[in-house]
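TL;DR need structure tokens for one chain.
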Amino acid sequence: MDQQVSRISIEDIENTLGQIAEVKAARVVASPEGVIQEIHVLALPSKAPKQLVRDIESTLMAAYGLAVDHKKISVAQLGADVAKVLEPDNFRGGLRTRISSINAHVSGVHSAVVVELEIDGKTYQGEASGPASKTGRIRLVALATLNAINKCVPDARLFGLEDVDVLQLGRQRVAVSCVSLVSAMGEESFVGSALVQQNEKDSIVKATLDAINRRLGFFLTAT
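>> reply
TL;DR here they are.
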């Protein structure tokens, strides 16, 4: 018996499949009753289609308890030339993004942050302001980072902050940032992290960049 999924679940499934290393895009087609009819995947040619289909089946079962017939999964693989462009190391020499400066100012209950980044030899500045709470100050650093990033991406796409925090993992403190990308194709989510060495704000910026660097590199290479 076919298992049903809700409309929200379909979006979640597409985002989950997009996290598989070889998958560049995924679309799920469901019936009006919410039964999965087709799954279309665009993938890199680094893995055999049959193996990728098995990975997709395993991912759906592990993440959602969904048993999907492999016959419903179609895989289209990019050509070698296109795949080479999509590899992270080919994003304009790896697309090294440099943090030029991070300035934070607190005045009473208000806080303001300015982050300046150097991307592909050009400088972009982002600003954010809000409550000067501990959580608020962490969030403002990530928001200012994304505001700078959004100045260099195509107008039809926008990065937004889902959440950010600094966590204690064992003996290490780690900045973790969850970023969403909204475009005409829908919404995707990415997560990045960075160890807190000395400067917490610096690590928050690095975690935010870690979440989006691969996709950002693709945008700048394609333009």
